[in-house]
Amino acid sequence: MRIDRSTLTRFGSLRLAAPGAATALQQGDRRSAFRGRGVEFADYRPYDPGDDARLIDWNVYLRLGVAVVRQFNEERSLAMRICLDCSESMNFGEPRKADHAAQLAAALAMVSLMHRDPVGLCPFGLDKLLAPTKGGNLDGLTEILHVLERLEPSGHGDPHHQITRQLGQGRSDRIVLISDLLMEEEARDRVLRLIAGSSRYPVVLHVLSDEELEPNLADWAKVVDSETGEAFVVRDDSSAKRDYADGLGEWLAAIEKRCRSLGIVYVPTFTHTEVPDLVENELRQARVVEHAFGGAS
Question: Could you tell me if residue 242 is inside a domain?
Fold first, then answer.
């Protein structure tokens, strides 16, 4: 897949948006539900032998004769997994959906790792299951970019099985699914339910090419589904274009509705739009990313 590394420098003012407390084990700069060492006071608890005496609130002890220990909110990182569709259908369009998806994955990895939010890249749809590529800071970005540049959309692997294997147990703060969602309805719904149940803040970035939105039906005697090989006869007239547009609109509306019902943030991403513009506009408006200082605006 092709990545324009020069555009990644445009994301220096952004970070991942966090609708709630972070839960990653890695130390970071985000508020978490964990109690321990930090700068933000959270609560008191009774003193236990062995506690650090520096945490005892001596004012309370002098007034009430009770030894209590100050607790603080620990600052943690926001963990993200990027599930990237590498199935055969992503090898379509100009620019290719696969290259657009890889550029989105690279941009999100950059935004995340700049602020020490750990990232796991989970390719799926290939004939062979790959292990996730992980990074905890900017040092890990190089390997993630190398993996993205070596990937090519060429498979028909089971999306649900492969994503399940790569995610493992537990939940991530944020899972971002980058895909054209060209799966059988039942398979697609299984994947959507999987990421909704495996993440506190699931996101779907739906990759759509111009050729899919407005195909040149005059050049086609039939349309062949690249995933299943099934052929569809196309009528070469204005009614065919109208029927196609109606069917596409219904399909997109159904996916968006299903995502909304599962609590998934749904963002269509069109290949004709430059990725930096998508990140700085659509993804910021959807609260996937935000300004590192001052929040989303």
Answer: yes
